[in-house]
Structure formats: C-alpha cells, structure tokens
Amino acid sequence: MHGLENRKIVIFFIFSLLCFIFLVRLFYLQIPDNQYKLEASNNVLRRVIIYPARGMIYDRNGKLMVYNEAAYDLMVIPNQLQPIDTLAFCKLIGISKEQFIERIHKAKKYSRYKSSVFEKEISSKSYAEIQEKLMYYPGFYVQWRTLRKYPKSIAAHLLGYIGEVDENTIKKNPKYRMGDYIGMSGIEKSYEEILGGIRGINYLMVDVHNREKGKYLNGKFDTLAVSGKSMHITIDEQIQEYGEKLMQNKKGSIVAIEPSTGEILAFITSPTYDPNLLVGRARSKNFPELAKDSLKPLFNRALMAQYPPGSIFKLVDALIGQQEQVLFPETRYPCHGGYPLLGGKPKCHPHASPSDLRGSIRTSCNSYYSYVFRSIVDKKGFKTFEESYTNWRNHILSFGIGKKLGTDLPHELSGNVPSVEYYNKYFGKNGWKSSTIVSLGIGQAELGILPVQMANVMCIIANRGYYYIPHIIKKLNDTPYTKAEFLKKNHASVNEKYYDVVIDGMEMAVQMGTAAASKIKDINMCGKTGTAQNPHGKDHSVFVAFAPRENPKIAIAVVVENAGFGGTWAAPIASLIIEKYVTDTITRPHIEERMLKANLIQNP
C-alpha cells in the first residue's frame, strides 16, 4: 500500500506541474507577450511591407543607365472594409464598378485578413489625390515602392525587365510573396540577388477612420529595408547607343568584346524596343503587343539566334588544319569558280587562283576550304572516319562554338555543331563521308553559331589562342568585382604559333580583299567577311574583326539578316563601331550616312 500511495503522489505532482505550465503560458500569451498581441491584432494594426529600392545600373564609364522612380500600390484588407460610395471610389481610382467587384472578390479569395494589391503602380501625381481621400475608405491604404526608369531607350535585351512573381516562383523560393517584383530577363534576372535588396516591415496603428496613428510599440518589431547594390556593367553606353542607331530598320545583332578581359562592350539585337515600355502599369498592355510583333523585338538574337556563320568559319578551319599538320602557310589549292573535285560545288566567286593560306583568307575562297576541311576529317591515323570527324568537332568546341560559353546573361543557347550521332541518324551509319558534309568547311550545312560566339572567336584569335568568358559585371557599389570563372583563361586547342598567318590573311582582307571598302585610316583592323546562305530568304551579311592588330582593344561580330554580302553591310557597320570606340570620331561620314539611312527590313 505504501508503494501505491507514493505512485499517487508522483502522478498528482506531475499533473499539477503540467497544469501550472499551461496556466503560466496562457498568462504569458494574454498579457506580457507583445509579439503575440501583434499577430493577434490585425484588426487595429497594419503590417506594411517596405520594398527596397533596386540597385542602380551604370555603364563602364559611370553613366547612369537604370534608376528608380517612386510609385505606389493601393492595398486592400477585406475584413477591414466598410460600406462606401463605390462609384466615387471607382472614379477616384479610374476603374469600373465591375472591376471593383472582381478585385474585391479576388482579394477575399486570397485572404480576408492579409493585405493584397488592389491597384498597382500608381504614379506620384495620382497618389497625391488618392491619399487625401483614403480616410473615407476603410480597409484601403497606399504602399510605397519603386519602378525602373531608363534615361535612354537603349540596351533593352541586355538590361532586362522586372515583373511580379508568380505562384511557381513563390513555391520554389519562399522568401518571395504575392506582390513582390523580380528580375525576369537580362541583368535584372542574372543579378536579382544583388540588385533586389531585402524587404523591411513596419507595423502601424490605424484608427476606425483608416488614419495611421503611429508605429506599434515605437517600432519595436519593425525591420529596415536594405536597398539593392548598385552595379557598374562592362557596356560602353556610347557604343551601345551608336550600334543600335546603325542597326535601325535592320534585323540582326552586334556583339563587341574587349579581348584582354572578356568584358562585353556592346550587346545589340535588332529590332529592339524601348525598355520603358515594360515598366509599371503599361507593361501589361505593351508586352502582348511586342510579343505578337512579326519582327520579334523581344527575341534576343545575340544569345539565341543560331546563324550559319558562312565564310567567317574558314578562320577556324585554317587554324585547325595547321594544328593537324595538313595545312601550311604555303599550301595552295585551285579554284575554278567552285570546288573542282565535286564538279564546282560549293561554288565560288571569281578571284586569282591558286591561293596560298593568306590569300585564301583575303579572297575568301570556298574551294580552298573545301580542300582544307576534307584534309582534316580524312586525315590518316584514325581507326574510323567517325573518329577523325569527332576530332575535328572537338577542336571546334574548344573555340566556344556549339556549347554555352557560360556568360552571366540568361537564356544563352549553345548553337550547333552536328555530332556523329546526328549524321548517323540522318544518313545511316557509314552512309556519310567527307564529301557528304563538305559544306561544313565553309560555315554552312547544319552549323549554327550565336553572335556572342562569333565575337568570342575573334577574342581567341586576337589573343593568339585563349579567351575569357564574355561577361557583363564590372563593379558592385564602386568596388571592382568579377566572378572567379571570368578571370580564368580558356584555351582553344590550337597552338599559339599558328595564329599569325591567319591574322595576316585577315589584315589583307581589310586592306586589299573582301572588306577593303571598310578599312579605317590609322587603325589596323583585321577582319573576315561572310555571306551566310539562308534557306528562308536572302543571304545574311556577316563580318567579324578585331582592332588594332597589336594590343587589340575590341573584337566584334556583326550579323545583318537578309542583307547579302558581308562586305556590303556588316563590314561597314563593324568598322564604324571600331572607329568610334578606338578614336571617338568618325572620319567616313558618307559610309555612316548610308548605314543609318538603310532600310533592309523592307527588302528581305
């Protein structure tokens, strides 16, 4: 019995202790715990999100390219709503009664106790009028935020735009809530974590007349918003703007890079659009119109358009042929208006023949590079043709062609260098050989190269064998900043000693060859024209170059769609940009005027 009594005492003690703990906790929740009272008092408190200002964006020379402008969201808390003059309210906001009913229903569906956006991105002018009369409309309040503004209507694809987060984004990243904005493309997307900042929260006391009475507990539970960091990017605003003017009324792209660093100097895709069109309330109207435009102004050609490179690809084959010891500076091949071994196909334009390696680049001989390509992929020493072709393809990949470069801009594609598997599937195993795919040697067939990759190949040649990944970030808050991967040299598979003879040919092409009409006084530009066959219409005009020859400051690629010969349009545009960047002047106004006035979209 004595043991039973002891157990009863222990059980009674435990039960009493538990009751005491519950009572203490209940007392604590009801009286001293202000945090709990804060959460339980939504009817008298207003939880206001403080949105941070996004970081501003400057060009490489400190010119402001993106800043912020104040805007306001009209918020609603359904359970605080009271009977109002609906028509007067609708007139104040500028909406219909049907829209009012629909939005209230949507807000209630989201939450009766949490605030949600009723009307977003109200201008400062409209805000002043609305704020004066909000006291008559309990349950509504105005919340401050910022909108992006662009001093110049340039670089839309590069800078990108911001938009409201969707449910999928919120599910993937719980830090976002309905009403938050996030970078949707361009730099805004790539560097969202840097530019976006951190939200703050204010808890405000509100009376029955919808008037703010001050901070709850003197702001004890408030948190400060942290503004996003400002960025200096690698773009030269002057060159960007000039390039966009030259590409007006043309379809295509320009990418310019500093070879010694990989910094992108200009990033142009045309047609383009005014970035201010996708800001604020106007975005919902303008985006669909831009999306359905037949000229595809939203399409980022610099990173997503896979063009056949045409004759500019001969430079890469010239380097690979030397590396494989099947091509030498003195090697000569005949041309009789085309490649003799296949009955004059691919065809070629009239020029002196036979050419050596330098001359083949100067004249851009199709026959020469048909010989070169077949000598590479038919080289002895491999067990099978598939192995030798794969060896050629691996060389190409080492030049950053046919794979993503890893730039810090979103939506980059890889381009296309067809694989053995592709051709086996298309022709059947052992159903193809070098003569079947000879047009690869002159940059045609299934090859697809992005403009950013074309410019990067120029960086490799300018550097005699290596490149830095093209990138856009330069500084954060005035402090130099570059990711580690952008400081690493990436080497192509061709030895440094083989580049100078190719560069000689490029220099000759500008001085006395296919790009002679675009040579620049006092600037030793090395370039290569390309006329890329287009199965959907007129050929594309292509040109790649770097300058000066020694200590190059700029490498560039220009593609003008459906414009014909590379020397007619792409080369002059590239030479003007190079001259502008290197000397800050234009000495050939007649060429500039012709490029600015040309409308090539009307004549596809």
- N- and C-termini, Cα separation: 106 Å
Number of helices: 21
* Largest sheet properties: 7 strands, mixed
> If you average the pLDDT, what whole number results?
90
Stretches where pLDDT falls below 50 for ≥5 residues? 29-43
Overall structural class, as computed from helix and strand content, comes to alpha+beta
Give the CATH architecture of the largest domain. Answer: 3-Layer(aba) Sandwich
Report the CATH topology name of the largest domain: Beta-lactamase
CATH superfamily descriptor of the largest domain = DD-peptidase/beta-lactamase superfamily
Q: Helix content range of the residues, please?
A: 25-40%
State which percent range the strand residues make up.
Answer: 15-25%
What is the CA-based Rg, rounded? 32 Å
- Characterize the quaternary organization of these chains: single chain
| Name of the top-level CATH class of the largest domain | Alpha Beta
Shape: elongated
